[in-house]
Amino acid sequence: MHDNTHALPQTGEPMRHPARLGIALTLALATVGCSTAAGSGSRTGGEPTAPASDTAVSVTSCGHRMSFAEPPKRAVALDQTSTETLLELGLQDRMAGTANLKTKIPPQYEAAYADVPVIAPKIATGEQLRAAMPDFVVAGSADLYTGDRAGTRDELAALKVPAFVSAVDCPRQNPAGTTPFELLFSDYENLGRVFGAEERAGELAAAQRAAVARAGENTSKAPRGVDRPTVVYLYSVFNGMPYVAGRTGLPSEMSRIVGAKNAFDDVNEDWPEVSWEEVAERDPDVIVIGDLSERGRPGDSAAEKRAALTAHPVISRLAAVRDDRILEVPGIELDPSVRSVHALGLLADGMKDLGYVR
């Protein structure tokens, strides 16, 4: 679950290099950590902090084992993915901050989101995070925990602030063969345990497992021997160059579920920059456009992407473009998040409408 703000060139978003915090602020944060999450902590090269009571809960996130004597009261979500997951779990009253939203919060979360402080409109610095006095931090992407961003997980653990990373962005720590969607569902269940919201987390995971099953219902009905249709996922067009889904991104798994194949499965990246000539060489059966209109950068909207396809002298001659075998989905839903099953459903329905899934 990568933060794609670093994958594409940024305009007007210089890398922040926060100054070291003063002793007073550090001590204040340590005090909050002790008072609101006593006994919590993550691995800092040794053993996790021992539980302070028999009711303590322990979870492991990307190699760090964390124990909680009581549910967090001042959680901070470092990105939109984590923010929406916590809101979906009904935890807005436990949130002390959010950061790095790429698009508008969808209507179903607006009311809950309205009361959550925004600690940073873009990527949060260590200073901004510590000023929120968190007792728990959640991120969908491990690269938000660096020294020149929010701080490393070990730095936060030293202040008794556990730092959770989505299992989707922790490939080396996950069992072989675990699908990205199952990793997402494990996030819901682990966060449910941390916050004492197991029932709601379990319901969410069950509902989304059912949605994934529905999306794959017709795959097995495709005739044997028929080649899987190929799909190019066009995420963005920046400076005239296309960014598409590679093998490690969620769209490859979405393709498999609906009986298709990601045309760029041979590229070991989430969202690689390629050339239009490479897209033409793959000659995909279907093109999926990720609509990022709300992000507002050049080439983000579905209309701009369609225009780029039809204006290109080679791409415009592809059958997928000539015959309008083009599907549109919300771009943010092509990265692993609580909303990704919605994009999967749109893909399944679109492939069926185009006659590729029976």
From TrEMBL:
Entries under PROSITE patterns matching the protein: FE_B12_PBP
Annotated region (Disordered), positions in chain: 36-55
Pfam families in alphabetical order: Peripla_BP_2
Query: Matching SUPFAM superfamilies, A to Z?
Result: Helical backbone' metal receptor
Specify the Fe/B12 periplasmic-binding domain's residue ranges.
74-358
Family under the similarity heading: Belongs to the bacterial solute-binding protein 8 family.
Spell out the PANTHER family in the cross-references: IRON(III) DICITRATE-BINDING PROTEIN, VITAMIN B12-BINDING PROTEIN
Q: Can you say what this protein is called?
A: ABC transporter substrate-binding protein
Protein source organism: Streptomyces tanashiensis
